[in-house]
Amino acid sequence: MIPVPLVVVVLGGWCAIYLADAFLTSSKSYKNSYEEWLSSKGLTISPFHIRWQTTIFNRLFYKWGRWKPHFLYIWFSLGMVFGIIAMFGSIFLLGKTLIQTLNQMMAESPGNQNDQMLQVVVPGVNLPISQLTYFFSAIFISGVIHEVGHGVAAVRETVRFNGFGMFMFVLYPGAFVDLFTTHLQLVSPVQQLRIFCAGVWHNFILGVLGLLILFLLPLFLYPFYYTGVGALVTEVLEDSPASGPKGLFIRDIVTQVQDCAITNVDDWHTCLDDISQKPQIGYCINTLTLQQLHFPSRARKAIQASLECRSNIDCRKAAPNSVCAIPSIENQTRLIRVKHPPQLDMLFIGFPVHLEYGVSLSSFIPRYKILSIDLPVMIETFCKYLISLSGALAVINAVPCFALDGQWILSSFLEATLGSVIVEKENRELLGFFILLGGSTLLTANVVLGLWMVTAR
Questions:
Q1: Which of 125, 211, 371, 456 suits a disulfide with 110, CB 3.0-4.6 Å?
Q2: pLDDT tens, position by position, 129-167
Q3: 240 with 358: CB under 8 angstroms?
């Protein structure tokens, strides 16, 4: 459910902007000066929408569009090929996502969306409020890079560039470029394809760049952080079973969970998932000590000093007078031993998933105490959002759907490929209309059902 405070803040803010705009535009004293101010600043205000357009970046776009013409020709030609492939691929991806959603609805499991490649994201529902900064920053950067691609490609193809702008719709930021429509219509269909495909092409490249940074991050941060020796605790929730005097603390380094070695955060999640799937592990305990385990303090010490085992055979190899004692606990709950030297092992009793999400960890361990333990996590999180959102923007914009880049990509593609096959332009436009209608229906169905799945959790 969407948090009420978020709804109140958003609606209250937009209502205040709308009322102020309505007052100033209806006021005899302020109307002219207010409208002149909006015009001079390139601002346009409408309900839940603010738009800003400027020409201050025009010279920069013309400089980029005229830099190394041959390289840009190859660059945007590759983008054209990618855009065409993405247009057809987006239809397949949306179709597959729609089938998965329908299957989940029929199976009455609306909350299980982990296997879907595309998901509808709603702040406060399946997007934590704490992650909003990453989310909107990644959306904004992806949108700007998308529009920069269109603008530079247009200048490269000698289409007049009128201006660049940004907007805010409800909560979502974005960008746009203003191109001279007459020039755009006069260039060839192939040139149009280079311009229309440039946005999704640049989003794809941005996603690849984010993936590359994420992959090489240990190398970039090597002088300041080291990896591969454990997972650093960066946060422990106050109500988590892992908190407390005998629990985990910030800057502890987790090296092992049960008999599973931990070298990074991925190991932490993999080990806990494996523990939840397998039967409770046992501990090799001396037969004399075993008789005294009805005292909790002795039981804790015995387990902390014992080796893990699955049967008595495992214990006989290490200690002849010991047996494999398996704790008797409820189904799905586990007794888990977490090693975080030099402190004593932490013993956790409960559901592994509660331990997993009650503790935040990082694979990067500072070489010096003055270094932040959160910086690598912030970079990792931002890169992951940038990869997913820039990729999603590329896929969605490539869909042959009304008002998206896919509409113009499809139109130019049909003109470039079927101009000599379907001679009548009206017939080509009719074919394009039915394809756009199908793509729009497919996208709408995914969004509507995706929202239903999210809100039905």
A1: 456
A2: 888 899 999 999 999 999 999 999 999 999 999 999 999
A3: yes
- For the question of residue 147 being annotated catalytic, the response is yes
Contact yes or no for 77/202 (Cβ under 8 A): no
Helix axes of 189-220 and 375-398: crossing angle, nearest 10 degrees: 160
pLDDT digits (tens, 9 = 90+) for 348-399: 888 898 898 899 999 999 999 999 999 999 999 999 999 999 999 999 999 9
Find the helix or strand (DSSP H, E) in which 233 lies: strand 231-236
Find the DSSP H helices in 55-175. 58-65, 69-106, 132-156
Helices (H), 221-311: 265-277, 287-290, 296-304
Average pLDDT, the chain: 89
Select which of 108, 147, 238, 356 is catalytic. 147
Beta bridge partners of 351: none
Residues 6+ apart with CB under 8 A from 149: 79, 198, 199, 201, 202, 203
Write down the pLDDT at residue 111.
47
Q: How far apart are CA 239 and CA 248, in angstroms?
A: 13
pLDDT value, residue 286: 79
Q: pLDDT band at 246, cuts 50/70/90?
A: confident
Give the pLDDT confidence score for residue 340 in this predicted structure: 93
CA–CA separation, 31 and 222 (whole Å): 59
In sequence order, what are the residues at sequence separation of 6 or more whose Cβ sits closer than 8 angstroms to the Cβ of residue 385? Answer: 131, 134, 135, 137, 138
Which two structure tokens, joined as six digits, stand for 430?
A: 């009719």
Comparing CA positions, the residue from 249, 281, 254 lying closest to residue 265 is 254
Query: Which burial class, exposed, middle or buried, applies to 235 when counting CB atoms under 10 A from its CB (0-12, 13-18, 19+)?
Result: middle
